Amino acid sequence: MGVVPPPVLSCSHSLMTQTTEKPVLVSVQNLHKRYGDLAAVRGLSFEIFQGEVFGLLGPNGAGKTTTIEIIEGLRQADSGSVRVCGLDPAQESMSLKERIGAQLQSTVLPDKMRVDEALRLFAGFYRRSASVERLLEQFGLVEKRHTFFEKLSGGQKQRLALALALVNDPELVLLDEPTVGLDPQLRRDIYALIERFRAEGRTVLLTTHYIEEAERLCDRVAIMDRGQLVALGTPRELITRSGQGTRLELRLAKPVGLERLRVIDGVIDCHEAEGAYFLRAQPPAATIAALVHFLESDDNALLDLHIAQSSLEDVFVEMTGRRMEH
Amino acid sequence: MAAVRIALLTIRLVMRTKVALFFTFIFPLVFLFAYAGLIAHGKPEVVAYMFGPVVTLNIMGSGFFGLGIQSVMQRERGSLRRYRLAPLGPRTMLLSNLLANYLLQLPTLGLLLFCAVAIFHMPMKIGWATLLILVTVGTFAFAGFGLTIASVANTMQEAQVYNNIVWFALLFLSGVTFPLPMLPRSIQRLAMFFPSTYLVSTFQSIAAQSEPLLKHWPEMLVLVISGFFGLLFAMKLFRWEKEERISTRAKLWSGVFVVPFLVMGAWMNTRANPTATWSRSYNAMEQDSAAAPNAQAAKLNLIEDFDGNQASQELSSLWRVTADSETRGYSVAEITLSTPGAEGTRHAMRLAGRLAPGPKNAEGHVSVRREVQVPANSKGLRGIEFETRGDSRVYQVAFQPPNVTQLGSLTPAAQVPAAVGPPALPCPLPAISFVPSDAWQNVRLPIAWLANPRDRGLAAGPWILQLSVTGPPGEFTIDLDEIRFY
What we know:
The complex is a heterodimer.
Chain A lengths: L8 E2 L1 H8 L4 E12 L2 E12 L3 E5 L6 H9 L6 E6 L8 H7 E4 L11 H9 L8 H7 L15 H12 L6 E5 L7 H16 L3 E6 L2 H7 L2 E6 L2 E6 L1 H7 L4 E7 L5 H5 L4 E7 L2 E6 L2 H14 L4 E7 L3 H9 L6
Helix pairs in contact in A: 4-5
Chain B lengths: L1 H15 L1 H22 L4 H34 L1 H6 L5 H29 L9 H25 L3 H18 L11 H7 L3 H15 L7 H20 L11 H6 L5 H12 L3 H28 E3 L6 H8 E5 L8 E7 L9 E8 L8 E11 L9 E7 L4 E6 L31 E3 L6 E5 L1 H5 L9 E11 L2 E12 L1
Antiparallel strand pairs in B: 1-11, 2-5, 3-4, 4-11, 5-10, 6-9, 6-11, 7-8, 7-10
Helix pairs in contact in B: 1-5, 2-3, 2-5, 3-5, 3-6, 3-7, 3-9, 3-13, 5-6, 6-9, 6-10, 9-10, 9-13, 10-12
């Protein structure tokens, strides 16, 4: 297809110094997977350390689900190497499934299966299992324990899916878009559960296309686009190192040419939309001082100013030249 | 163990789903009632003959639509994906499906049997073990069919098309709907390639001709092999996801599934002669069916055979012995059960005692009587008959409306009012005298003719049957059995 691979923004060096003491639980090296003519994953490599919450962030079609399903042993890679908990998912799938817990993007169970029946059934499949009563309590499903699956709300179904991922008390929890389609309140509930996983010391791999989810939950994030890794590191490091600077949104008393704003000290880029000017600035404090000085000398006035930190979205835009489509 | 867990839960889910309940338990009954009512016209022997096709139909339905379609539906719906995350393989999933399908089959079979026996009086001509083996083998074979179709079909629509083609072919061309001997010769030849033919004909041979199951081992073997082939293909081609497709080549390979049937069909067409067996079963059923109404009618006309479990109690509650000792005479008598009864039956009634002269040298007299209900439509009844043996005294038997006075004396002078409905009798009906012998012999009392020569039947309601003996002093013994209307 002639797609030029984007440069990878990696902060792994500094991370390795932080995490060298922790063992690697998941190792993905040069992973490739095609579906016919479509290359879903192209040369993906990353490692997940024990005890961290690792995020695969990217737009739909980035290859996140394919990657997580190869790690789960549900799909075979075309090439590359994957080791999970020291096992090869393709060859040692049964042993691996004893040690991991997974939640699918969409979990479907028989309509007339009750919540506690589902948990007991799946807990019975494993050599080691968690207490069903405790899971019901932990995931707020005690009152719904006798409810049929078809009668559960979207949030309750998602909580049941997460509880099912923990029935075998796994070392590694794999969550594929755990909050997709949920309203903000339910999303926050799920965030709290994932934070609890972290507090319990579990290793979590989650895929998401929500920036705030990755920023809030993940210790490290791998940003994917079109099957490739475009950035890897902690959210803070990625934002800092991306050189995106701070975002300034300002409204002025009189219009001013963009070329005059661009030459202000510290301004990296600027554009205008709907009467507002959007600047990226680094360092922000010096840039704001220079901006105020410029406006005074131009007999102009600052009507409104918003200052915001850059986000992973900005990192994605910088690395791919596109906005992340949700 | 995981397979058992899933199977048990699947059964529980079926019990919670109205549609599944209908197709599992009610639908087979619809077929039973249709076959027993419309085809067998309620004749027990024909119902026994058609029971095999009904069970086969049920087994086929559960294989094709219960197991086959359910497997595709689970895959299409995405519920298999969750199981895939657990340490379970295709073998566990398939075994759980097979097990659930089989365990659901058993209560349905019980229900069919219960209705066939209780409602249609079907005689149980197949032993329990044989029935269970037939159902087990059949369920396994048709599960193979369902699983193979589920394996090769990429979508629900595709599975429905395959299912319907095979289903209707088996339904109409293999003796499931029409008895095999009634099919044209060309269709019979074709039927020899169909597994449902093997199951139906085995059922019918055992039911109609009491053939041993072992005689049908080739059919059973082919059914078992086909079940294994189906399971093998299902394991080989098992797919967890609806997105997974199988190649045309794999589909063609699954055609190997029909090889056992082709071999069996060819053998049957060239070497074996199953049509003769089919005809023998059919003829045996027809003969039994023709004979059965007589036996049934005889059963309906029976008044007393003294063979029931309560015969002893009934003897004392229904029959009343009267001797002249009640009127200052000295004769004594009692009734007991004697063994065996007439025609090799269990019991007969024995009236035994001693006649003694009464006051003024009157002859001793003993009688025994009971009430007999004359059915409402008695027009076809001609009288009462019974089997008897005894000493060579003269005995009298009479059958009278209950309101005749001085029945014991059988005095013809008494005026008898009408019982229920016509005809009114001017006097008690005359008694018949007979002298029994050591051997059982049949005695007939032509009541209808005596009561109404114009053949208008007996008045419905309770009548009195009375046997009496009178004569010179001394011991007497008489046995009575198989008392019935004729």
